[in-house]
């Protein structure tokens, strides 16, 4: 198994009963989830604060990505034709998303379970943009282990064709719940990319509609690809998935 050096943080709110199996919320882009960060223009998601204030039934595991390796870690496949159509050039990757997904579920998760002596009742993956891409792929690769997905403005266009094929090949359960949203003006400065981004997410939604799952698709008018918008939508999405 390929080794990864991503840091992680485990957050157990006081209102959670530690003697019962937990609902685990795993967030990609962990460095943006818990504290102010200049890359998010100061709009951190503050997931731990949300869990405390709303007394949500989740225990939180956030996983940081390694600087300059985010695209490679969060993409399970090389970029394809839809990516070229969207960007106008071939984005050459060194994709290790498949290996990252294996490391997350088969190495990190068992270590966290042992370290914190926890029993898991359900697992929800949360991802934004490319974080949503690797989160969906992980659910598709491990449908027996993952229960729910929260996808915020998924950058599926990078691996569009491969992810669509993976959806077709996956055996879902009717207990799977997937929340998937996007904004209507993802890239404010480029109308064409925004249109492709919308098409990409709608294609994923339509593919998932064919599966025996509970699907919650959302479209947000005027929202850009920005943490200012993501922050409020994540709050709503988590409440939808409970």
Automatic annotation (TrEMBL):
Pfam families associated with the record: Esterase
Domain of life: Bacteria
InterPro entries in alphabetical order: AB_hydrolase_fold (IPR029058), Esterase-like (IPR000801), Mycobacterial_A85_antigen (IPR050583)
Protein known as: Alpha/beta hydrolase
Native source organism of the sequence: Macrococcus lamae
């Amino acid at each position: 198994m390929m080794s990864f050096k991503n840091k992680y943080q485990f957050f157990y709110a006081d209102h959670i009963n530690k003697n019962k199996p937990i609902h685990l919320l795993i967030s990609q882009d962990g460095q943006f989830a818990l504290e102010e960060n200049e890359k998010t223009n100061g709009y951190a998601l503050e997931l731990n604060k949300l869990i405390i204030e709303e007394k949500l039934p989740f225990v939180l595991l956030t996983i940081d990505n390694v600087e300059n390796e985010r695209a490679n870690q969060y993409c399970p496949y090389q970029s394809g034709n839809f990516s070229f159509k969207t960007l106008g050039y071939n984005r050459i990757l060194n994709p290790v998303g498949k290996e990252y997904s294996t490391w997350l579920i088969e190495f990190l998760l068992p270590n966290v379970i042992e370290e914190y002596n926890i029993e898991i009742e359900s697992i929800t993956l949360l991802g934004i943009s490319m974080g949503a891409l690797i989160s969906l792929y992980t659910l598709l690769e491990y449908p027996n282990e993952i229960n729910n997905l929260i996808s915020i403005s998924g950058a599926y266009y990078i691996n569009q064709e491969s992810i669509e094929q993976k959806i077709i090949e996956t055996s879902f359960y009717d207990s799977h719940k997937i929340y998937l949203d996007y904004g209507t003006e993802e890239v404010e400065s480029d109308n064409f990319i925004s249109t492709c981004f919308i098409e990409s997410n709608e294609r994923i939604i339509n593919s998932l509609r064919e599966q025996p799952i509970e699907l919650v698709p959302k479209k947000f008018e005027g929202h850009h690809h920005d943490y200012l918008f993501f922050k409020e939508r994540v709050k709503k999405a988590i409440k939808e998935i409970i």
